[in-house]
Amino acid sequence: MEKIAVGILGATGYTGGELVRLLARHPAARIAWVTSERYAGRPLSDAFPHLRSAGDLPCQKLEPARAAVECQVVFCAMPHLTSMAVIPQLLAQGCRVVDLSADFRLRDARVFQEWYGVEHKAPELLREAVYGLPERHRAVIDKARLVANPGCYPTSVLLALGPLLEADAIEPGGIVIDSKSGVSGAGRSAQQGNLLAELNEGFRAYKVIGHRHIAEMEQELAGYAGRPIQIRFTPHLLPQSRGILSSCYVRPRGERSAASIRELLAWRYEQEPFVRILPEGELPATSDVRGANFCHIGVALDKRTGWLLLFSTIDNLVKGAAGQAIQNFNLMTGRPETEGLDQMPLFP
Amino acid sequence: MEKIAVGILGATGYTGGELVRLLARHPAARIAWVTSERYAGRPLSDAFPHLRSAGDLPCQKLEPARAAVECQVVFCAMPHLTSMAVIPQLLAQGCRVVDLSADFRLRDARVFQEWYGVEHKAPELLREAVYGLPERHRAVIDKARLVANPGCYPTSVLLALGPLLEADAIEPGGIVIDSKSGVSGAGRSAQQGNLLAELNEGFRAYKVIGHRHIAEMEQELAGYAGRPIQIRFTPHLLPQSRGILSSCYVRPRGERSAASIRELLAWRYEQEPFVRILPEGELPATSDVRGANFCHIGVALDKRTGWLLLFSTIDNLVKGAAGQAIQNFNLMTGRPETEGLDQMPLFP
Amino acid sequence: MEKIAVGILGATGYTGGELVRLLARHPAARIAWVTSERYAGRPLSDAFPHLRSAGDLPCQKLEPARAAVECQVVFCAMPHLTSMAVIPQLLAQGCRVVDLSADFRLRDARVFQEWYGVEHKAPELLREAVYGLPERHRAVIDKARLVANPGCYPTSVLLALGPLLEADAIEPGGIVIDSKSGVSGAGRSAQQGNLLAELNEGFRAYKVIGHRHIAEMEQELAGYAGRPIQIRFTPHLLPQSRGILSSCYVRPRGERSAASIRELLAWRYEQEPFVRILPEGELPATSDVRGANFCHIGVALDKRTGWLLLFSTIDNLVKGAAGQAIQNFNLMTGRPETEGLDQMPLFP
Amino acid sequence: MEKIAVGILGATGYTGGELVRLLARHPAARIAWVTSERYAGRPLSDAFPHLRSAGDLPCQKLEPARAAVECQVVFCAMPHLTSMAVIPQLLAQGCRVVDLSADFRLRDARVFQEWYGVEHKAPELLREAVYGLPERHRAVIDKARLVANPGCYPTSVLLALGPLLEADAIEPGGIVIDSKSGVSGAGRSAQQGNLLAELNEGFRAYKVIGHRHIAEMEQELAGYAGRPIQIRFTPHLLPQSRGILSSCYVRPRGERSAASIRELLAWRYEQEPFVRILPEGELPATSDVRGANFCHIGVALDKRTGWLLLFSTIDNLVKGAAGQAIQNFNLMTGRPETEGLDQMPLFP
């Protein structure tokens, strides 16, 4: 079998590095093209010493015109707003694209402008792009030219709440989501606020009003529910590198037990290789999925107050970014969905 | 001025050590008696090398009968359920007591039994004990024989929500509190789950149904509100040593702005030395109060969904335990309330 | 191909868990037997939620008499001094054994007694056991019944210094080794000193006189040098979970440049899949090899003072324990040496 | 008593913030002038929320010409090479200066140029400046116009080794110093290498050849020894915010026991309020002195190899910077040396 040539744009950020880590061991992929403006002309291991064993990948300046020469599928791990300028060129050359930025996740250009504050540069592609949550949109990912890989927070939330809204098992209103993320989610750029000395022993909330991931969560949750959904979403920054834990507060509809909610989710995800509903009494920790493509979901019902709780954890760089992108790649290229994604979590 | 002789029971736990750290520099207190079952007969610095400069305090076995000989005021930093067996003896000898355990925080013995699963051993003292949140009960603390020092989570929550319920500014129902605590809150006993290797990179929720601090929060919030209050409370464990951040979700009553809520709180705490309402746009981090007796509260209003957010942070070992205990001690002994509590937070 | 049935004794410690993580994905191994006294009768995922995807492995009580029924090769990850009581029984039944404890690393029973303070229970096996550092003893590992897997500190040190002593490139006297280890090296048992609250921000040295790993380092270094070697070795405890970095101070013999030392090492390890000599100007970080079986070695020469510096890093649980054990297993069973060990390091 | 007006130049770096933390509670000092280029015109609490309780200090642009108007003593916490351009102006106006940069620590302008790579701008002041290690140079600090506050690594090393060289108790050659520092020592500027995601689980050495602190260590050690001293010095970066631990390897002269070395040091520091020699069997941890001005030194003798070990720990921002600067300030202004420096360490 000839391997599929893939490109990774923006390979020296954390998401890009994670794509290399996973794709370098993917049996059907060959990393043919890695770009980095900052490290152009140097080996990737200058940026990431841990990737030394991925071979001597040379970083190149991004020349979109070379895309089709270099590869068949492009993983675009560039910053938001940069992607949408480049991706039309990649598609025009015949490449298929998994975009890990937020640029093609929203279907409505006006909604995009509302949340991102700028006009979308390729609005015609917004309808074509497929939201790449395989557990939800698997059927349309396989043929897609452009897959918009979901955000990290949305992945953790949608997998937990989507099926409950779909089954009309919870109230659509009054949803509260309190999420906590490791700092790798903020990217690798040098910012004072992300220094170890600032964050160690310094847990805090941030962007508590209007975090942009709300838009894609509400779009997708509405899809599950068949009606508009509004959520209250609060992100926090953990003094750790990886991992997201979303604590979701919802109201069950009717007389539901925790066991019945757990069963509903377990049934929904029975065939899913990467989503696991924890047994009664167990709650997930971010370290349970570190480095792997799993999502672990714990369920509890507070009979006293009537709140149903869902705790959903993923590795923000794997199921929340690079791992899910490869899951999409596998679907797009007709490979087994779990190929290259069989890493066990790393603990401790 | 002759200094007041104080005793610290259970001095080799984290709370006990913090009491020594603060009382060793308190201008009106003299540490006269420190007990520790495990370190009896050895200097305290064997347990806490950082307390070497507190002088050569010898640890003793607890002999309650010696209390009055040794000291006037006793800080009881022993485990829950142990305190209530000892404190009646201390009081009987004429000592005044600040109890840092949960044993005397609830006024109703039945409620105690319901949440703690055992019968209270000194129910007659439950009515006498004063809940030692000075910002709320200052007027009755000064004469108290027995002050029940509030729990760490409750302190962070009550300071934020109490005045809003008191002023009828928020709905009494549907309150959600998502709290995160450093691991020192779990005490110093060796438990596998609190090892660095288990927690580093391993954020998680715990005891999500029925955490015992709910009882005292609901008791006190009901006092503010003048009616029963039920809360949804979820604790999480942070990979850091100190600090609590409580993210509170409530519904404002009527047409309130974030500014008006902030003003209400600022006015309420104007004369309070330890509580600060942050200006618009600022959110607290646990590191802003590390090692000090402050509580920082940030306010945000999500107009889209109607939720009002309060973020309240304290150092769980200071304002959440030893610092607040000394604040109570100052009130009980007629000292200035801030005496011995002027430490600036330690950052980074 | 029929897979080789393997057993893991002591599967619920960190080393045992790491063996499961790696062997569960090993193409030629089948985990047939896992034992744990503490978790006997329960699934392994009760002890390690991150190993849920390894299948429903049931923990059993250790019954050495069942070894041959259960498996062909046994990985013994039990505490020091326990292993030597069990292993003779395993061998007697025809199992081959990779022992990850220290019990069979020293060839001389008197040296063992001197450093471990007890008489060896199976001295006749000490001569038979092979010290399982493949880069050094590959030729005799393949036929061995009993491989003594090297200690974590020794692995990091021997790979860096061994070839230099062998080539007579450094002075055999006056060697100083200052090592730092993540806390997973201390095991999973609940000890106060390893709590997160104790170690976070609390770096320190420990067991600075007479750490037991000295014995095996001196034994093996003497083998390289062809003469007795004494080292000064100091272990320190890092506030992190994994990783060892050994900073080694030696005196070069004659007029050697850093480049020539680097070349010597690079030449020595040219064919080695897991050892890498870093180019000039680069120094290793523990995060460069986290989760993988690599050893990265950096070299610097201080011309001013004449000291030659070697910085050697491994993941203490992989190349320092479970990974190296599997490398030995591969050699013993005629598999490719790197099989099951192609994980890329996890960063960040 | 009228308080002494002090200025803090560069108040929004970690060292500057620590000066504010300590001076805001100093009974004889009044913070009259704080400068910060980046935060000029804004309150200091914008840069440091934890300093809110220091009062509303407004940051100003540095105008050296205003120094004498604003204050009597200036703490200069600006970057290396910047200080030497400003300090002559401050002195010319009659201010006395404690400089926390490295600019005036070396007495010889040629040595400065050799290690710092630039010509010194005020070589005439190098002879006048006093090296501000009070335990060594107390006698000449009190009258000094310009005190060069020692570096953090040198403070930890000089306090441990100085008296041993002075007493001819150790060999002057072959000294090896392996130091580890928390990341606050690298300053607050945003650098990729100091991000939490880069350092967590990522211990490493850095600048292993030619670290600039070597120059001042060798200068001062030569003073103790009465002869030139060369040291081998290796700094490492810890995944924690604060704290330095220096592990020093030296050769005792003659037949010395660990006890005699411990006694020598204990005798030397008997009257010193901030230096403590630990009893036999105890080793220091960085958390034992966190936030306080202490230096803890542990001693061990390896009889097997003849190496004498000294483990010295300080808080790099306190005894290694701001605390020591205030100790110097106290001496310069005739205040008790410990004034404002009685903080107990913060643990956990």
What would a concise description of this structure say?
With 348 residues, the first copy, chain A, is an alpha/beta fold. Helix content of chain A is 31%, strand content 20%.
Characterise the protein shown here.
4 copies of one chain form a homotetramer. The first copy, chain A, has 348 residues and is an alpha/beta fold. Chain A has 2 domains: 4-150 and 319-332, Rossmann fold (3-Layer(aba) Sandwich); 153-316, 2-Layer Sandwich (Dihydrodipicolinate Reductase, domain 2), CATH 3.30.360.10. The first copy, chain A, has helices at residues 14-23, 44-47, 67-70, 83-92, 109-116, 123-128, 134-141, 152-166, 196-199, 213-225, 258-268, 318-332; strands at 4-9, 29-35, 59-60, 73-76, 96-99, 130-131, 146-148, 175-181, 204-205, 231-237, 244-250, 275-277, 295-302, 307-314. In chain A, the strands form 2 sheets. The first copy, chain A, has a 7-stranded parallel sheet with strand order 3-2-1-4-5-7-6, with helices on both faces. In chain A, strands 9-10-8-11-14-13-12 form a 7-stranded mixed sheet. In chain A, α1 packs across α12 (318-332) and α8 (152-166) packs parallel to α10. The two termini of chain A are 37 Å apart. The model of chain A has no long low-confidence stretch (mean pLDDT 97).
